[in-house]
Amino acid sequence: MIQSDNGVVMLRASGACLVVDVGASAPRVLHWGHDLGDLEPPELATLALTSVPAVLNNSPDQPRFFGVWPTEFDGWSGTQAQTGHAGGRGTTPRPKLVEHEVSIGADGSGGRLTLRWADAVSGTRPTVTYDLSPEGVLTVDMSIVRDSSLASQAAGVPYDLGGLTAMLPLPERATEIADFAGKWCRERSIQRLPVVYGTHRRNAHRGKPGHDSPYLTLVGTPAFGFRHGEIWGMHVAWSGNQHTLVERLPEGAGVHTTVLGGGESLLAGEVRLADGDEYRAPSVKFVWSDEGIDGVAERLHRHLRARVAHPKSPRPLVLNTWEAVYFDHDFDRLSALVDRAAEVGVERVVIDDGWFVGRRRANAGLGDWYVDEDVWPNGLTPIVDRVRERGMQFGLWFEPEMVNLDSSVARNHPEWMLAPSDGVGLGSRNQYVLNIAHPDAFAYLLERIDSLVREYGIDYIKWDHNRDLHEAVYRSSDGDRPGVRAQTLALYALLDELRTRHPSLEIETCSGGGGRVDLGILERTDRVWASDCNDPVERSEIERWTGLLLPPELIGSHLGAAVSHTTARTTDITYRLTSSLFAHAGIEWDITTCSAEELALIATWSAMYREFRSLIHSGTVVNGDLADGATALRGVVAPTGSHALFTWSRVSTSANGQSGRVRFPGLDRERDFEIRIREDLGAARRHGADPAWVTDAIGSWFTVPGSVLVDAGLPLPTLNPQQAMLIEVRRR
Question: Model pTM?
Fold first, then answer.
């Protein structure tokens, strides 16, 4: 950290830096991106001097600037940092800086800058904090307190907050956007478009980020790829309604060109601030890299792995019962599945939907979190004991935020519904929403889940959330009011309390698969279910982009049946096993129906997972930039660079007959390496004969100079569609 005499603050970490001028008429970001080096105060003053743009024709008489808390008073005509009103007044904030605080990171890397304002127009006290982590991830936190004693108008009237948006400026060379769309079973589908004049705004108004969540917005230099290009990225760490934006005006944003930002989307009347009330916006994560998409991912992964609560123990191999038995719960059938799971090396068994009262089908029972005595006359104890006797952990599925109308909870407590008083609206998957912000509903859920965790010593919860929230209003005697924010905060409070009561309990976040994947929920959970789709062709793409934000150990990836439950595509077992290895692996298949040959392969895969999980769950994720979109080279390189595992795969045929030389990313070009093809799970089927070196590397080590691997590349086999090959690399 450096602070100049005239109020320019520089935070530096891991090759990135943020420079803010707090001594100007209004604080503004001078630079966010590549580390500018150890600048002396006079040099920082020069940076501030050169941050003043030209005065254009037909424009304000003073140079425009883009402030830390941008307003119309600054001449900024784009999205405002703060919107709201006090009885229709106080709509044009003019915050004045009161104080700022700067602290440096404990190890001298990164640091924190906090700025506090007072605004007489809106009668509020805004605060923004920039926290640059040692990994170079910048967290922006905004808050606002109502103080009508400041107000020049509408004093004593509640302030209706429209929203707060955290924004940072981008330079002219950031001309291309990549963000994500998707649907159920095809989450995180990347889309690219140019930065144009106007606002590219994405709204997630589903009561959660959604299967079509923008997820992470990247803006970079033209045609940026996995291993090249300069990129500025942003993620809203929030599990409720939110928005993201990329905005460009003809006059620019001060000396910058474009603005990147996001925040919570508030419904009308959702936040009304009386005197002394405070609103804290969700954290927004910003990240910069000049090493392409993989560089962005590496910073985010290191940032998450540095958390105190990040999983430290080896991630156990999981068997989930859903696609094995669905609602057909039966002790004998599940016992046979548990026994078979133990034989192939499973370490955790999760009983999915169907264990509670009345849950023989999807339209009844949801919300009644009591063990169904008709199915389990002795409770879950017999199956829990069976799991534990076989040396495995026990997990259980819940969907606490949802109910069926055909349930005791819905019948007895209509006031607990998150729906208009006039009646519930459209169902979705036969589900409706429970208002967990209602104190009694919250207490009911906490008691039920807590009691079951205590009674059965549950190690793991799969926490589902299958539908969007529509007409999400809190029923009350004085009229319905918006409830999405309160629902999200109640979810966090419920998870936090369960973790306090059960510190060793692990929780997986699932939302019809990948509909709630964000760093807000990940502060309270240990794993995401990236998608309900176990088809490896679809899954490989979904997980590739899920892995942009999350490291492999947080992403569940399961081996499914030959015929996919969700797509009806048939894939062979070798491809399915290989595809599910590079994450937190598991099984979702009735393996009691498997042949002896299939079981032997699954057991081998289980052993390989244990062999490689310390590498996969600690290493750097890398992706090759390939011209042929039907192929992919993905890998994980150990932090020391001494060991790596890659998968070479193909999803469809291509016009070209062979790949040519494919470069292996993430390795040290100055060292020599040994490479071998691992066919423990079976040989990938080829379209033609292999390059000569592959024959030498099947099952034995083949020596290659690092420069050949990294810079020249190796010709790789032309695989048939839906085939994958494992390639192990170690430093010689």
Answer: 0.97
